[in-house]
Design the sequence.
């Protein structure tokens, strides 16, 4: 249920964010799609690593009501995944 809410929040955010930046309708749709896919991938990877306990609690931040992996200096593995 949280992932559905997060997807809805991301979709609204992406529509608002790219609406003012787009000049060509097809390019706008492609940009929105790319942004949504990147964020969904980040949510998926973060969710898996969080539930499996791969990184310490401090390597995550709460965003979109979901635990999202963030770059943490004390946890080089988390930083490497975030940079990918």
Sequence:
């Amino acid at each position: 249920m949280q992932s559905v809410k997060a997807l809805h929040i991301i979709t609204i955010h992406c529509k608002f964010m790219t609406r003012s930046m787009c000049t060509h309708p097809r390019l706008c749709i492609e940009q929105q799609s790319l942004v949504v896919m990147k964020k969904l991938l980040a949510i998926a990877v973060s969710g898996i690593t969080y539930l499996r306990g791969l990184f310490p609690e401090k390597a995550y931040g709460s965003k979109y009501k979901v635990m999202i992996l963030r770059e943490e200096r004390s946890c080089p593995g988390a930083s490497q995944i975030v940079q990918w």
